[in-house]
């Protein structure tokens, strides 16, 4: 329903570790291949072999360049899919009720069979997490693999999102962010997980773990834990002899 | 935002149509409900503009055949409300039109009701945009104010023209139209100025969008795909600053100064039909430019993820 | 208000899951292919598979789009237009094979070396090599020579194992990981899994790379080194560790040749060789008894310095002494190298400190008893949790062999190879150079070759030169130009064959290598070479046979196309005899099998090759009655024996794993087991494999070798010294004079650094490529999903270089090298070495190839850096051909490219080539893959 549930029993979502993501796009394609034959219409690709291929994807990986005040610039790979917001504006703007948030687990979905393809929900989403399918003209978005996570046609261990299952670096985590004691809630707490665009007031369920501080030159000094450095081979060999007496 | 023609036509025409219904309905309050040729012409034009606008908006839909479903979510969705209000208003206006043309009773109640509902419909249209926190330029009280002002101005100038052509003369309408046009463009100036200020300091930045601002300044290095995508096609539209300035100037010239001069000419009795028809056309033309800019200049927060700024 | 919409949370997934091996790249992950209505519904990683443990990369998931690619070749093709045009007619397999026999049979009967058979990205080299050997041609190799032979040769000559995919860090125990010059690696998924583990464990990752993307972006520290200078950087770390006395002497004495005595006899033919006893075993000096002993007799008792007199009166010094003297010299001090490396001295010093800290202060002791090769029992396994990995950023330079050795030296000095927390070998490695075969040539009409073409020379005597000193191989491998070209020199074949140097060939037979495009340097001229004609109008390379599965650029240049199946449609064998898929803890091999039936007239290459071999009557390919010995590749995989009891697959042999008679049901067992076989290395054998009795015995049982072969790491490399002695004028095999100085410098028995491709004034910048994680060389662009990720890529230019050249994002620029110029779009980067330009590899495509629209961005907006790189250096005026490669191995030096950049008018890309006509119908319109299942 277009009204948001006042509260959801669970807050299922993803936690994405920006300190670990190597930007490999595995999650992008895995998402595409699972979903193109799954929930709703296929994720089509217009002009697939032509001059301007445009396909629908539910998950995309950006790379950002961050330039600190001091030290070299760094690149951060940044996967982005629907954040399954608690205050999801994409749901409330929907005129048809196609866009809804489940009260059981908080997953935000589109029922494509009643979607009129007005695109307003995509405008309402601050994150660009919704894409109109170029061929079916209905709104596509991350389903949090709702057709996997409860799917008893899959082995139990596979009842996780396709993108999480495939991520080679283990940078994607799935779980209940409403349960403060769940593994991923603890991970978020330990790593200062953050919201994207908190100023939009969407209260995203998905969290991002920031890159950990990168090391500079202030660290370990070799001299601090060895004898006086040897300037010459003779000094070194004298040390060798002392050491060899011990072996 | 991509300035889709269907949406521009929709907002301008339905604004004018409901504005006209407003201007046809309100006078019933003081017993001046339209009748005869004026009623025929007025209501036909009002319905043509509002229904035409609404039809145009369905071109924008992926599944127009399901458009009826859009009436269901009026409790939460402005788009749904707009649809419901439009239909209710058009229904009321229909009865009102019948009352005016056939001379049924109730015009005195139906007229003002139509006028209020028309304004509410325009308000709902405006709120489709104004509600979006994602678009700084739209998320402001000035959006409904401008929509309402432009709609009423359109209605007033058109009704003046119609009255000049089909009734006993434009009456006070050229003057009120001039005033409305003035107010509308003044509001628009403020909206532009506010929007320009927000464009410099957007609510959402690449830093807040990525959460990486604490590390330094952030820019897009590589887009997720090297090809285009729906988001960029839909929300990635940009218009050069200088080009926008020029268009704003033309919008004000064509949609502001010109109709104001023409309405003033009309109110001083100078060929009112001609000047008011010309004025109406100019206003609508100006509004097409204004509406194109309304979309083209609007920056969606998602563009924070696509900002390649090199400075 | 409507109610919450109903959702089917448990839809039907697939009719069947078939487990096979991915081949969207050479990593060879296990995949679960979900099939529905006979079509591929979904591909996911096989959770049990040792390589990927369930994960899958973008390419692997995009396998669906490869399987249904419009670029798939459909039937055998015979060229009808001129070479390069892409005009073909479809023919039957009988016609195609008859044509091949018509060309090949006379060659085999008269002069087998007139066939050059080169197999690119081959995963069946033990089979294709055997085919070539039975044919009798010495001219066989795969892609290693232009890929990463420096890595393999540097590793195997130093420590009997290599980075590449022959080893891996001990991900679960390492505390500090150094990654040199890697963007993606062949071990794509294992490295990503490993980095993820390090991140989860909080271990530190230091990335040494001019570019900070991908793995290098997540590293905890980034060293934005200047290309080609890693050797200097590493040897400065060695310098610091020696100064601080932070090396593992115990380890050096036990497991390396640090104590081996090196003859000190300046000016004589034996100066620098290892002193040996009567059995040819190296000698060490027993500090206790004061006499020379065989290396195996003592371990920690050997001397590490001091000149001694051998029983035969010659003087000798432990190898370590020379090593210390060299690297403690001021020339390797951090200050001395900092500027050239682009790395501040303080950073070098600190990293040395961190290495020492991790290795010695975080020492690991596993309570796992084991026995070493000398029979000594150890109660514990001592770990030095420092590990390293390197790939083409190191090897694709002309000093890459020695830089690789320098990195191994650093690891070995820290005692961190084959120990807990360190770098570990994957079976069948470790395997020292001496345990590898030597190279074989010596073609005889109608006869097989006596042994494999590729091997590891021990000295100048193993070079493959004829009586006149001319190279015996068409690629000139194992000549003085590239003495240790242990993977052959595929990148030289076309230019040598076109030049008829050292001789003319008749047929060039290529498999799975896009030699007319991205895998060649100097692409434009290579296309000319492929089409060059003699005076009589015949092509200089008379016949070109090519097997590809897709409509690549190379297809257009062949006379006969033998279309392969896709990887999901054929049998394949990932064999221990080849480049295996083992992990340090386990030996493993795997198969592919047809999980989808081809819908075209195509044949698996290996099955086709068996047929061709039989038609040519080659020994091994026909039985005594002259009938084909194998029905197809599957039959070969199950029944072929290379040595008695040893075949392509080690699992489920008759009588057990590793060794045993062929088992006709072997492939079925593999299929039942998920497509692979795995045997765990016993606990006691997990580390110190080169010196671990339990491991050596297990390896023999598993058939990796026939007798235990413990050895020491050669930090001092005697084979190199032998070549150096030749360069100094000793011995009867002498290098040509113009190569003496180069060989003397590059064949240093101790790791050494020398500059490559110097910055000649007008070409101050470096230009390199990186592999995009989601694209595999040229063959990803036909993939509807992957091409949306990387369809058009710019050249990334550091901010200051942009400013200096007056460039802005989106501009176009000329990039100019001594060899040529290209026009490309540019974009700005700040996270790169300030002198280094870079781009993603192999995105540019020739118009008409890959079943793409001619207006595709790959053909219009994307480019190859290859046009700027030549396989030869510009002429130096001495009339000689100077090859752009490592003088030791002949490895193509892709990353020695120097350029300058200038603003250009807007595009399009230059150079541009005529479109090739497509032998398949180009892909058209929209894709709605999976539509039938979403209804
Ligand atoms: N500038 C620059 N150039 C480089 C490099 C670089 O770093 N920079 N790297 C170099 C290196 S290391 C390498 S290894 C080469 C790689 O370059 P190539 O060896 O040319 O590799 P690919 O482009 O992947 O394609 C080889 C061919 O195999 C075909 N193929 C794919 N699958 C099959 C199959 O199942 N059967 C058959 N028969 N054919 C198939 C493809 O269609 C393609 O034509 O590029 C080299 N070129
Ligand atoms: N996704 C994907 N995976 C692949 C391939 C592919 O095409 N796509 N190709 C496969 C093949 S054939 C190969 S050979 C491997 C190669 O795997 P990699 O070795 O990862 O190959 P490159 O992408 O060439 O990466 C070379 C890296 O070295 C850096 N570099 C260049 N010069 C220097 C230098 O002087 N010093 C240092 N420290 N770094 C330097 C470059 O910036 C780049 O990051 O990958 C294999 N895996
Ligand atoms: S699969 Fe994992 S590592 Fe790769 S881009 Fe996605 S989140 Fe990042
Ligand atoms: S991320 Fe966007 S689409 Fe997803 S719930 Fe939030 S607002 Fe809606
Ligand atoms: S596009 Fe579909 S889901 Fe989105 S708001 Fe419109 S009807 Fe709702
Ligand atoms: S959870 Fe499923 S739908 Fe969402 S991004 Fe991951 S794979 Fe795609
Ligand atoms: S790394 Fe990717 S493409 Fe390569 S074999 Fe593994 S899954 Fe396939
Ligand atoms: Mo390679």
Descriptive notes:
The complex is a heterotrimer of chains A (247), B (311) and C (935). Chain A is 21% helix and 18% strand. With 247 residues, chain A is α+β, with helices and mostly antiparallel strands. In chain A, the strands form five sheets. A three-stranded mixed β-sheet of chain A has the order 10-1-11. In chain A, strands 2-3 form a two-stranded antiparallel sheet. Chain A is elongated. The mean pLDDT of chain A is 93. Chain B is an all-alpha fold and 311 residues long. Chain B is built from ten helices and one strand. Chain B has helices at 5-25, 36-59, 78-103, 107-130, 142-166, 173-200, 206-210, 230-235, 241-267, 272-296, and one strand spanning 217-222. In chain B, α1 (5-25) crosses α5. The longest helix of chain B has 28 residues, at 173-200. The model of chain B has no long low-confidence stretch (mean pLDDT 95). Chain C is of the alpha/beta class. Chain C is built from 27 helices and 34 strands. In chain C, the strands form ten sheets. In chain C, strands 5-4-25-24-23-6-7 form a seven-stranded mixed β-sheet, sandwiched between helices. In chain C, strands 30-32-31-34-29-33 form a six-stranded mixed β-sheet. In chain C, a hairpin with an 8-residue loop joins β1 (16-21) and β2. In chain C, α9 packs antiparallel against α12 (334-341) and α9 crosses α13 (345-361). In chain C, 64% of the residues are buried. Chains in contact: A-B, A-C, B-C. At the A-C interface, α1, β2, β3, β4 and β5 of A face β3, α1, α7, α8 and α9 of C. The structure holds ligand MGD (2 copies), iron/sulfur cluster (5 copies) and molybdenum atom. The site of one ligand MGD has 30 residues of chain C, from α5.
For the structure shown, list the relevant keywords.
heterotrimer, B: 311 residues, mainly alpha, 10 helices, 2% strand, globular, C: 935 residues, alpha/beta, seven-stranded mixed sheet, 27 helices, binds ligand MGD, binds iron/sulfur cluster, binds molybdenum atom
Strand fraction band of chain B? under 5%
Report low-confidence residues of chain B grouped into runs of 5 or more: none
The number of strands of chain A is: 11
Radius of gyration of chain A: 24 Å
Globular, elongated, flat, extended or rod-shaped: what is the shape of chain A? elongated
User: Portion of residues in helices of chain B?
Assistant: 55-70%
Overall radius of gyration of chain B:
21 Å
């Amino acid at each position: 329903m277009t009204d948001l549930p006042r509260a959801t029993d669970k807050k299922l979502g993803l936690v994405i570790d920006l300190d670990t993501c190597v930007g490999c796009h595995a999650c992008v394609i895995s998402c595409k291949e699972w979903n193109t034959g799954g929930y709703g219409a296929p994720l089509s690709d217009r002009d697939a072999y032509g001059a301007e291929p445009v396909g629908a994807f539910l998950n995309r990986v950006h790379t950002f360049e961050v330039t600190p005040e001091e030290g070299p610039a760094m690149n951060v790979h940044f996967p982005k899919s629907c954040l399954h917001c608690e205050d999801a504006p994409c749901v409330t703007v929907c005129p048809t009720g196609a866009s809804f948030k489940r009260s059981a687990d908080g997953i935000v979905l589109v029922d494509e069979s009643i979607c009129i393809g007005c695109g307003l929900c995509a405008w309402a989403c601050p994150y660009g997490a919704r894409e109109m399918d170029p061929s079916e003209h209905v709104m596509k978005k991350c389903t949090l693999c709702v057709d996997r996570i409860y799917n008893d046609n899959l082995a139990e261990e596979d009842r996780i999102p396709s993108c999480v299952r495939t991520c080679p670096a283990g940078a994607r985590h799935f779980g209940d962010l409403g349960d403060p004691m769940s593994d991923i809630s603890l991970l978020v707490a330990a790593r200062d997980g953050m919201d994207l665009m908190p100023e939009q007031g969407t209260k995203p369920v998905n969290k991002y773990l920031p890159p950990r501080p990168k090391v500079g030159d202030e660290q370990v000094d070799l001299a601090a834990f060895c004898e006086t450095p040897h300037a010459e081979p003779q000094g070194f060999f004298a040390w060798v002899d002392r050491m060899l007496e011990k072996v | 935002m991509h300035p889709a023609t269907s949406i521009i036509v929709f907002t301008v025409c339905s604004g004018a149509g409901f504005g006209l219904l407003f201007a046809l309905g309100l006078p019933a309050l003081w017993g001046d409900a339209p009748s005869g040729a004026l009623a025929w012409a007025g209501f036909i034009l009002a319905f043509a503009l509002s229904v035409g606008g609404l039809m145009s908006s369905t071109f924008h839909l992926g599944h127009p055949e399901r458009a009826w479903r859009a009436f269901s979510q009026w409790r939460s969705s402005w788009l749904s409300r707009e649809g419901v209000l439009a239909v209710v208003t058009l229904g009321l206006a229909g009865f009102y039109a019948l009352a005016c043309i056939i001379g049924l009773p109730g015009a005195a109640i139906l007229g003002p009701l139509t006028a209020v509902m028309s304004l509410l419909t325009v308000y709902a249209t405006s709120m489709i945009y104004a509600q979006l926190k994602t678009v700084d330029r739209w998320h402001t009280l000035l959006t409904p104010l401008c929509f309402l002002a432009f709609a009423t101005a359109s209605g007033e100038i058109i009704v003046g023209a119609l009255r000049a052509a089909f009734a006993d003369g434009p009456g006070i309408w050229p003057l009120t139209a001039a005033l409305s046009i003035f107010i509308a463009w003044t509001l628009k100036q403020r909206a532009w100025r506010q929007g320009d200020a927000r464009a410099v300091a957007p609510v959402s930045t690449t830093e807040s969008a990525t959460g990486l601002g604490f590390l330094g300044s952030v820019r897009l290095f590589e887009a997720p795909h090297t090809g285009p995508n729906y988001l960029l096609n839909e929300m990635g539209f940009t218009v050069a600053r200088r080009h926008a300035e020029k268009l704003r100037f033309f919008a004000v010239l064509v949609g502001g100064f010109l109709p104001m001069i023409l309405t003033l000419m009309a109110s001083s009795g100078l060929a009112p039909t001609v000047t008011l028809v010309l004025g109406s056309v100019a206003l609508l033309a100006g509004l097409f430019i204004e509406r194109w800019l309304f979309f083209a200049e609007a920056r969606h927060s998602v563009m924070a993820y696509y900002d390649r700024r090199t400075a | 208000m409507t109610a919450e919409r109903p959702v089917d949370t448990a839809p039907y997934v697939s009719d069947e899951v078939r487990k096979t091996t991915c081949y969207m790249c050479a990593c060879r992950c296990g995949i679960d292919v979900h099939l529905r209505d006979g079509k591929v519904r979904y591909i996911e990683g096989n959770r049990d598979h040792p390589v990927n443990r369930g994960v899958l990369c973008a390419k692997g998931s995009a396998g669906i789009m490869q399987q249904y690619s419009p670029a798939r070749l459909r039937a055998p093709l015979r060229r009808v237009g001129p070479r390069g045009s892409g005009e073909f007619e479809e023919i039957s397999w009988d016609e195609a094979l008859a044509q091949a026999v018509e060309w090949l049979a006379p060659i085999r009967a008269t002069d087998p070396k007139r066939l050059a058979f080169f197999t690119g990205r081959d995963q069946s080299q033990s089979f294709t090599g055997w085919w070539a050997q039975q044919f009798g041609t010495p001219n066989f190799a795969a892609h290693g020579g232009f890929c990463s032979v420096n890595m393999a040769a540097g590793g195997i000559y130093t420590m009997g194992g290599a980075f590449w995919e022959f080893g891996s860090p001990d991900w679960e125990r390492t505390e500090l990981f150094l990654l040199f010059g890697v963007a993606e690696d062949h071990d794509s998924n294992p490295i990503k899994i490993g980095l993820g583990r390090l991140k989860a464990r909080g271990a530190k990752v230091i990335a040494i790379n001019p570019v900070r993307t991908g793995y290098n972006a997540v590293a905890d520290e980034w060293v934005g080194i200047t290309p080609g200078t890693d050797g200097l950087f590493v040897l400065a770390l060695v310098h610091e560790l020696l100064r601080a006395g932070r090396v593992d002497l115990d380890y050096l004495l036990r497991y390396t040749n640090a104590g081996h005595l090196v003859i000190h006899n300046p000016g004589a033919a034996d100066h620098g060789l290892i002193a040996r006893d009567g059995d040819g075993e190296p000698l060490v000096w027993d500090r206790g008894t004061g006499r020379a002993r065989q290396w195996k007799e003592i371990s920690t008792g050997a001397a590490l310095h001091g000149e001694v007199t051998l029983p035969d009166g010659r003087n000798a010094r432990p190898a370590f002494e020379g090593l210390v003297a060299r690297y403690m010299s001021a020339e390797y001090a951090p200050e001395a190298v900092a500027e050239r490396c682009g790395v501040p001295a303080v950073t070098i010093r600190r990293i040395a400190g961190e290495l020492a800290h991790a290795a010695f202060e975080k020492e690991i002791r596993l309570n796992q008893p084991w026995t070493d090769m000398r029979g000594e029992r150890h109660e514990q396994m001592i770990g030095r949790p420092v590990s390293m990995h390197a790939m083409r950023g190191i090897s694709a330079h002309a000093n890459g062999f020695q830089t690789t050795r320098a990195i191994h030296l650093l690891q070995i000095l820290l005692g961190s190879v084959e120990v807990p927390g360190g770098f570990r070998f994957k079976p069948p490695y470790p395997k020292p150079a001496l345990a590898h075969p030597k190279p074989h040539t010596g073609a005889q009409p109608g006869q097989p070759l006596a042994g494999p073409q590729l091997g590891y020379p021990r000295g100048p005597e193993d070079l493959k030169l004829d009586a006149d000193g001319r190279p015996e191989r068409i690629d000139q491998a194992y000549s003085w130009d590239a003495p240790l070209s242990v993977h052959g020199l595929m990148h030289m074949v076309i230019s040598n064959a076109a030049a008829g140097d050292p001789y003319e060939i008749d047929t060039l037979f290529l498999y799975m290598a896009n030699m007319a495009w991205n895998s060649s340097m100097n692409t434009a001229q290579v296309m000319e070479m492929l089409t060059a004609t003699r005076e009589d109008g015949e092509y200089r390379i008379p016949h070109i046979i090519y097997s590809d599965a897709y409509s690549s650029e190379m297809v257009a240049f062949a006379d006969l196309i033998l279309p392969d199946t896709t990887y999901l449609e054929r049998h394949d064998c990932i064999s221990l005899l080849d480049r295996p898929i083992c992990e340090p803890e386990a030996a493993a091999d795997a198969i592919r099998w047809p999980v989808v039936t081809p819908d075209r007239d195509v044949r698996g290459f290996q099955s086709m090759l068996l047929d061709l071999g039989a038609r040519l009557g080659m020994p091994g390919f026909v039985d005594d009655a002259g009938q084909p010995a194998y029905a197809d590749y599957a039959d070969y995989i199950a029944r072929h024996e290379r040595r008695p009891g040893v075949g392509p697959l080690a699992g489920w042999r008759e009588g057990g794993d590793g060794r045993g008679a062929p088992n006709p049901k072997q492939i079925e067992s593999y299929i039942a087991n998920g497509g692979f076989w795995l045997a765990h290395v016993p606990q006691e054998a997990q580390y110190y494999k080169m010196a671990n009795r339990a491991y050596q015995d297990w390896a023999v049982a598993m058939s990796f070798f026939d007798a235990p072969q413990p050895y020491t790491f050669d930090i001092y490399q005697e084979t190199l010294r032998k070549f150096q002695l030749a360069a100094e004028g000793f011995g009867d095999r002498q290098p040509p004079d113009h190569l003496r100085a180069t060989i003397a410098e590059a064949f240093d028995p101790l790791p050494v650094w020398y500059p490559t491709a110097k910055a000649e004034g007008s070409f101050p910048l470096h230009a390199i490529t990186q592999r995009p994680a989601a694209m595999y060389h040229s063959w990803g662009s036909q993939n509807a999903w992957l091409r949306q990720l990387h369809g058009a890529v710019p050249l990334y230019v550091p901010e200051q270089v942009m400013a200096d050249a007056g460039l802005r994002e989106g501009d176009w620029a000329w990039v100019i090298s001594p060899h040529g110029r290209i026009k490309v779009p540019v974009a700005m980067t700040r996270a790169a070495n300030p002198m280094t330009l870079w781009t993603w590899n192999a995105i540019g495509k020739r118009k008409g190839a890959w079943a793409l629209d001619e207006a595709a961005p790959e053909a219009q907006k994307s480019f190859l850096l290859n046009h700027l790189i030549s396989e030869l250096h510009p002429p130096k005026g001495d009339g000689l051909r100077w090859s752009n490669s490592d003088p030791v191995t002949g490895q193509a030096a892709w990353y020695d490219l120097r350029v300058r950049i200038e603003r250009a008018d807007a595009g399009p890309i230059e150079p541009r080539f005529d479109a090739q006509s497509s032998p398949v119908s180009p892909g058209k319109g929209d894709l709605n893959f999976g539509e039938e299942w979403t209804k």
